[in-house]
C-alpha cells in the first residue's frame, strides 16, 4: 500500500448499544493503526442518534475497551450533539429535491413488498410517495400521519476503487430509496455519517463488508451534498468458529470478557488484524509493528473464523517476548517486584500475565521446600557449596563445584535442586531464578527449612 500524501483522517463509528466484540475491534484497529502509521488523525465517533438504544455506559465502555487495546483517539465526537448539522443537511437535500416525505406504515410497506415478490419483482420501494400531490399529503397529515423522509436515489451504477476489494459497483436502481429521517424526526446513520465525514474531513472509511451496499447510497449522498466521497475499504467479517456471525447484542467475544479472561491486548489486536488475511498470524511486539504489517490488499474476501483457542495460544506467545517496559506498570499493579531480571526469568513460562504472581511468590517466599529423603544429604552438600560471592552468574559457578563434589549428573543433579528451591517440578530456568532468590533463602530451602 502506498503512503498517502496528505495526513489521512479516519474514524471508528460504533453505536453505543452494546459492548465491543473482536469484529468491532478489527474495524477500530484498521482505522486507528492506518492513521497512526501515516501520521494522520483517528476520530472516535459515537453513532448515538438512536437515543432509545444508545447509553452513556456503553459509550464509556467502548472508550475504555479501545484504550485497553492501546488505541487513543485524537478526537471524540457524539452525533447526538451535532443535530443542527444534520438539520442543515436535510434542508439542503430537500431544497435539491433529493429528499421526499413518505407516509406508509411498516405494515403497508410489508404488504407492498409481498405483493411485488408474488409478481416476481424485487421488493424495492415503488416510490408511490413521490407521486403524492400537495392535497393528498395534506389529507394524510390531517389523519395524523407523520412522514419519514426518503433519499431519492439516482438509480445508476455507483462505483469506487475499494482499498480491500478493488473496483466495486452498486446499481442504485436496484435499491429502495433510503429512509434518512424517521417519523419521530430522528436521523439514520446513513445520513449522519456522511455529514460528519464531510465536515471532519474524513479521507478513508474502513468498515465491514456488510456496508458495501450502503456505500453505493452514501456516495450519492456525498455528491448530493456537493462533496467528494472519501476512499472506502470494506474488510471481511469475523465469525465464530461455528461460522455464526458475531453479535454485539448477544455479547459474542466481547473485548471485556476476553480481557477478564487474561488475554493480552496485543495478542487480541494481532489476531483481530491478521486473521482472514494472507499474512501469517504471529506475535508482535507493539502496535506500531502491527500497523506496519497492515496491507488492505491482503485481506481475503471470505469471512474469517476467529478462534478463541488461537487467541489463548497467541497470548502466551506474545508474553514470551514482551519487553519489560511494556509490562512494568502492570507487574507493579499485581504487587510483583524483581524488575527486569525477574521478568526475563519468568516470561517464557507464562500463559497469562497473572501467572507471574506464582513465580514471584517462589522468589519472595516463604516457601516450604519438599525433598525426597534420599536427596537430603546431597541437598545439604549443595547448601554448603553455595558460592559466597552472589551475582547473575552464580548458578553455573555453583554447579561447576557441586557436580564433581556430589558425583551426580543430569536429572539426579538438577531435579532435587529445582524441587527444593522452587517447590515445583518444572518452571523457569534455575540459572535465572537463583540470583533472584538470594543466598540466604536458597541455603535455607536446600536444608529443608521454610524460607
Ligand atoms: N455505526 C455504524 C456501524 O457500526 C458505522 C458504519 C460506518 O463506519 O460508517 O456499523
Automatic annotation (TrEMBL):
Keywords: Aminoacyl-tRNA synthetase, ATP-binding, Cytoplasm, Ligase, Nucleotide-binding, Protein biosynthesis. It is an enzyme of class 6 (ligase). SUPFAM superfamilies: An anticodon-binding domain of class I aminoacyl-tRNA synthetases (SSF48163), Nucleotidylyl transferase (SSF52374). It is found in: Cytoplasm. One of its GO terms (molecular function) is ligase activity. A motif ('KMSKS' region) lies at residues 245-249. Residues 10-311 form the Glutamyl/glutaminyl-tRNA synthetase class Ib catalytic domain. It catalyses: tRNA(Glu) + L-glutamate + ATP = L-glutamyl-tRNA(Glu) + AMP + diphosphate. It comes from the Bacteria. PROSITE patterns: AA_TRNA_LIGASE_I. Its EC number is 6.1.1.17. ATP binds at residue 248. Residues 390-447 form the Aminoacyl-tRNA synthetase class I anticodon-binding domain. A motif ('HIGH' region) lies at residues 14-24. PANTHER family: GLUTAMATE--TRNA LIGASE, GLUTAMATE--TRNA LIGASE, MITOCHONDRIAL-RELATED. Belongs to the class-I aminoacyl-tRNA synthetase family. Glutamate--tRNA ligase type 1 subfamily. Monomer. Catalyzes the attachment of glutamate to tRNA(Glu) in a two-step reaction: glutamate is first activated by ATP to form Glu-AMP and then transferred to the acceptor end of tRNA(Glu). This is Glutamate--tRNA ligase. The gene is gltX.
Amino acid at each position: 500500500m502506498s503512503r498517502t500524501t496528505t495526513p489521512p483522517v479516519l474514524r471508528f463509528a460504533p453505536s453505543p448499544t452494546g459492548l465491543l466484540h473482536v469484529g468491532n475491534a478489527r474495524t477500530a484497529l484498521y482505522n486507528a493503526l492506518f492513521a497512526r502509521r501515516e501520521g494522520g488523525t483517528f476520530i472516535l465517533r459515537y453513532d448515538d442518534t438512536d437515543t432509545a438504544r444508545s447509553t452513556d455506559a456503553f459509550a464509556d465502555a467502548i472508550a475504555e475497551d479501545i484504550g485497553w487495546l492501546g488505541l487513543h483517539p485524537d478526537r471524540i465526537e457524539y452525533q447526538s450533539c451535532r443535530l443542527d448539522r444534520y438539520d442543515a443537511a436535510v434542508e439542503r437535500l430537500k431544497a435539491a429535491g433529493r429528499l421526499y416525505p413518505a407516509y406508509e406504515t411498516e405494515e403497508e410497506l410489508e404488504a407492498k413488498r409481498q405483493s411485488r415478490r408474488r409478481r416476481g419483482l424485487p421488493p424495492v420501494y415503488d416510490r408511490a410517495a413521490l407521486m403524492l400531490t400537495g392535497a393528498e399529503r395534506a389529507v394524510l397529515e390531517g389523519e395524523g400521519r407523520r412522514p419519514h423522509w426518503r433519499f431519492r436515489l439516482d438509480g445508476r451504477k455507483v462505483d469506487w476503487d475499494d482499498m480491500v476489494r478493488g473496483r466495486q459497483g452498486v446499481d442504485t436502481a436496484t435499491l429502495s430509496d433510503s429512509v434518512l429521517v424517521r417519523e419521530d424526526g430522528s436521523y439514520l446513520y446513513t445520513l449522519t455519517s456522511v455529514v460528519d465525514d464531510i465536515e471532519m474531513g474524513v479521507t478513508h472509511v474502513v468498515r465491514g463488508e456488510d456496508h458495501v451496499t450502503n456505500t453505493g447510497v452514501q456516495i450519492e449522498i456525498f455528491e448530493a451534498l456537493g462533496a467528494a466521497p472519501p476512499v472506502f475499504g470494506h474488510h471481511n467479517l469475523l465469525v465464530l468458529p461455528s461460522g455464526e456471525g458475531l453479535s454485539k447484542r448477544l455479547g459474542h467475544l466481547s473485548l471485556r470478557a476476553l480481557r477478564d479472561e487474561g488475554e493480552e491486548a496485543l495478542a487480541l489486536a494481532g489476531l483481530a488484524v491478521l486473521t482472514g488475511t494472507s499474512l501469517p498470524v504471529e506475535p508482535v511486539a507493539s502496535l506500531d509493528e502491527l500497523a506496519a504489517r497492515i496491507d488492505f490488499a491482503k485481506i481475503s474476501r471470505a469471512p474469517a473464523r476467529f478462534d478463541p483457542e488461537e487467541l489463548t495460544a497467541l497470548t502466551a506467545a506474545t508474553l514470551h517476548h514482551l519487553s519489560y517496559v511494556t509490562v512494568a506498570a502492570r507487574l507493579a499493579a499485581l504487587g510483583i517486584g524483581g524488575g527486569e531480571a525477574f521478568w526475563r526469568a519468568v516470561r517464557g513460562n507464562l500463559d497469562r500475565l497473572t501467572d507471574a504472581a506464582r513465580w514471584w511468590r517462589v522468589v519472595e517466599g516463604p516457601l516450604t521446600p519438599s525433598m525426597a529423603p534420599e536427596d537430603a544429604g546431597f541437598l545439604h552438600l549443595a547448601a554448603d557449596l553455595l558460592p559466597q560471592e552472589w551475582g547473575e552468574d552464580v548458578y553455573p559457578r555453583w554447579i561447576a563445584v557441586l557436580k564433581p563434589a556430589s558425583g551426580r549428573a543430569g536429572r539426579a543433579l538438577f531435579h532435587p535442586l529445582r524441587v527444593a528451591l522452587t517447590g515445583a517440578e518444572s518452571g523457569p530456568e534455575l540459572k535465572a531464578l537463583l540470583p533472584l532468590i538470594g543466598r540466604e533463602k536458597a541455603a535455607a530451602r536446600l536444608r529443608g527449612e521454610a524460607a
